[in-house]
Amino acid sequence: MIALGLLGIFILFAALMFTRKVPALLALPCMAILIAVLAQLPFTEVLNHIVAQGSVKLAPVYVAVFAGAMMGRVMMQTGIAEEIIKRAAEFGGERPLVVAFGLMLVTVVLFTTLQGLGAIITVGSLVLPIMMSLGIPRKLAGTLFLLAFGTGFIFNPILFTLYRQLLQLDETAMLPPQVSSFALILLGLMLVTMVIYALIAAKRSGEMLLMAAESTNDLLQRKSASKVPFLALFSPVLPLLLFFGFNYFGLKLDFIAAFIIGSLFAVWTTDWRNSIKTLSASAIKGIEDGAPAALLMMGIGMLLNALNLPAIKTALEPLIQALPFSSAVFYIAFFGLLSPLALYRGPLNVFGIGIGLFSIMFGAQILPAMALLAAIMCVVQVQNICDPTNTHNVWIANFVGVRVEQFTKDTIGPVMLVCIIGLIIAASFYM
User: Fold this and answer.
1) Which of 290, 291, 374, 410 could join 69 in a cystine, given CB atoms 3.0 to 4.6 angstroms apart?
2) Rounded to an integer, what distance in angstroms lies between the CA atom of residue 346 and that of residue 15?
3) What secondary structure letter does DSSP report for 338?
4) Which regions span the lipid bilayer (predicted)?
């Protein structure tokens, strides 16, 4: 009975989110409350355990989001992000494809640290016009930018912090090195896919010509106002270097601390005299940028608490354990072929309904923890790049003037292929 009720709730809210009647920000808390009612939780426990405690369950994740968004703002205010993009465009000169690859590579590097719609808007407003000025078709420019964003985001700290929560590591525990190793494998797969996709798409589009009304040089001169020191250009990768560097020597460094050090380094190397003003403004703007993600995390925390109620786990665990996940073929087929279910906040979306399903899977121990986490990392790529409900997808589509579903249609095939290859590698390593 409870299982049927859960299925009804999932289908109802999946339909409401799919039809855009209810945003995920509201759907997740509503689902959590309805699931708690289904489990016959007393009213006060619904308020205390589900709403109050659930909203702070993922506090480390969304504090990391705020810290990362603040650093993103620092890099924009100090001109570091703009300078990196400008140098990449200058490096390519009059060779459109080389410039495009340079800009995609820079986008990959920037989004290992940047996050939030504000960062997408800032970087996209610089990169996309330059790409389109090279004669790259508008839809292709948007697709390449989206692929580059999704590639860099594999190493974004917000995902690593979420993975820590899913693995239920305590505060002093180190992140297993297999997580970063598998992220590196996914990064390699995405880079290869991105390059092949760009080459094939460029060939189909014919010769790329500098035929836009506004030339690349005009754009670069207009965008660049000040010179940024060379040392400051290392700011985007500093948090990652600190995090993995400390991990290498067996020391734990939280991403929040790494972001703060990165922000201080960025202002110190660019304009230390105005550092207090820059940091203060960036902190406020960073909180604005990170607010949607933080609200989503609060809803996810509530849903996690609801789906981990004893009555719910008792109803769902036998169903999940009945699936033959011990078979590598089933593992690859389930997460690979069903990976589009991560779209529209579906049942495999770790930022939607899927968080509950994955949480129960971890609890039921139907797979080795690293095999399950690797599957989540593969599916996240499909969601992060192809989901038309992502705010970054919507903004990019509006900017280049195409329907957002066009990006889903163009990217779902290659990204699913990356997902399946990643699952094959994960099955051979971790099962």
Assistant:
1) 290
2) 9
3) T
4) 24-43, 55-76, 96-128, 140-162, 182-202, 230-249, 255-272, 293-312, 318-338, 350-382, 411-430
